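*** Residues and shapes ***
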Amino acid sequence: MAQVQRMSRLMVKTLRDDPADAETLSHKLLVRAGYVRRNSAGIWTWLPLGKKVLDNISRVVREEMDAIGAQEVLLPALLPKEPYEASARWEEYGDLLFRLKDRKGGEYLLGPTHEEIFTLVVKDQVASYKDLPVMLYQIQTKYRDEARPRSGVLRGREFQMKDSYSFDTTDEGLAESYALHRAAYQKIFARLGLDYRIVSAVSGAMGGSASEEFLAPAAAGEDTFVDCPSCDYAANTEAVTFALKPVDGSGVGPVEELDTPDTPTIETLAEHLGVPASATLKNLLVKVDGEIVAVGVPGNREVDLGKLGEHLAPAVVELVTAEDFEGRGDLVRGYVGPQGLEKVRYIADPRVAPGTAWITGANKVNTHAKNVVAGRDFEVDDYLDVVVVEEGDPCPKCGTGLKLDRAIEIGHIFQLGRKYADTFQLDVLGQQGKPVRVTMGSYGIGVSRAVAALAEQSADGQGLCWPKEIAPADVHVVAAGKALQTELALDVSEKLGAAGVRVLVDDRAGVSPGVKFTDAELIGVPKILVAGRRSAEGVLELKDRRTGEREELTVDEAIARLAAE
C-alpha cells in the first residue's frame, strides 16, 4: 500500500510569479511549486513535497552505499575545536566556519565536513589490520558560513550531504575503496537521472592526492570545467595543466631598455609599442602568508587567484596594497620585471618556459625592457599552472582545443592518504606484529544540492519535471472540478495506492480546472491522470509530464499501466 496524498489536506502553496530574489531556475521553481521556503539568507525550510524528494535522493544514496559494504553512522554536527585545531583546519577554513562557545567558554564549531571526527572514531574502534578495510558513511546536515549564500538551495549555509570515508592499511587497498565509491557514484547519479561528467580536480583544504569531481552541466553552475571534443579528457579548470616546453633562446639579443612613458598596464604598453599583449610578461605581486611573491604569466592571460591559492594551500594568498611598495626600491608599481628583483620568490606559469623572450618591466618608472629571457636573465623558483583557462587552450592529453562549460558540483571523491591518520596517529597492528599507519579516502555527495541540480536539468517552460525515482509521487491525479469527477479521482487514487503506486491527488474544492492543471505541470510528477469530461463513462486521460503524450484509458487500464511502470 503506497501513500495517497490529498492536496486538500497537504501543506502546499504554489505561486504564480517568481520570487523577487530568485536568480536561478531551480530557485524560482522550487519556491513556486511549494517545495521549499526561505527562512533566512542561505537557510531553507523543506516543505512536505520537498522533503519527499530529499528523502528519495537519500534513499538511493543509502542503497548504493550499502551495496558496496559501507556502514551508516551518525556523527554530531556540534564538534569540539581541538580535532580541527590539530589538523590546522580551524584556521584554514577561516570565516567559513560557524564557531561558538558554550557557557563554560569551551570552543566548538558546526561541522562543515568530518574527516577529523571519523578518524578519531576509527582510532577508538579499530585495533588490528583484521578489522580493516572499513567504509563508513552518514547523511547529515553540514554548515558553512558562506559570504554570499545564493541560488536557493544550491549554495546555502546549511545543507544536506552524504560524506563517507574509507580506511585501509595499504595504498592498493585505498585504490580499491576509491574505485568502489567511484562506481557507486556512477550508479547513484544514473538512478537519479542526472546528466553528469567525471572530471579531474584539486583537493584544496581537504588534503590528499587523487581527486575527481562529479559535475552536472547547468547554466546555473558555479563551477567551470573543460572537456575535450577529441578524447575523454575532462577537468575542473583549477586542475587543468599545461606542459612546460623549454625553447632555444640562444639567438635572442641582449636585454634592451625601452622608454615607455605612462604605460603601467599591459594594454597601454602593447598599444605604445605596437605589439600584441602576448609578447609581454605580466608580473602580478601577491602576498603569501605576508611575504611578497611575484607571479609571471603572458600579458594576454589573467592569473587565476583561486588556482594559485590551491597550489599554495594552506598558505593565505592576498593581493599587495600600495603600502607594500613603500621602502622597496626594487618594486616599481606598474613597471615590475623579474630581472633584478631582490629577495622575491618568483612563480611562473609554464608558458613562461626557459628560453622564451619577453617585454616586461625594467623596475624603473616609465621604462620597460625587451629581450628578457627566462632562464638567462631571470630564474623561476616554481612553475605552477596559474592562468585562467580559456576556450581553445590545448588539451593536456591530445592537444585539441578545449571546450568550456558551466556545471554544478554534485559529488567529490578524494584519496586522502595519511594526512589525517598522521595528525591523529591512526595506527593498527599489522600482519608482522608492528604498527601500520592507516590510509584514508573521503567521498561526498551534495544531497540537497542534487535536488537543485535535477530541477535545473529537467525543468521545462511549464515547471519541474522529476525523474520517477525521486519524484514526490508516481502520478498526479487531477479532478477537473465536478462532484462526479472528484469522486472518480479519489476512487482511482485509492486503488492506485493499493496497487503500490504513490499518488498525489488534487481534490481541492473551489479551485478551477485551469489552476489545477497549471499546478500539476509546475509540481512536476512524472504522470498526470485526469478525471475530466468522460468521467461518467469511467474513462481517464493519462499524460506523460515530460513528453506531453496523452491517451485515454479506462480505470482498470490506467491502474494496470501505472502499477506496471
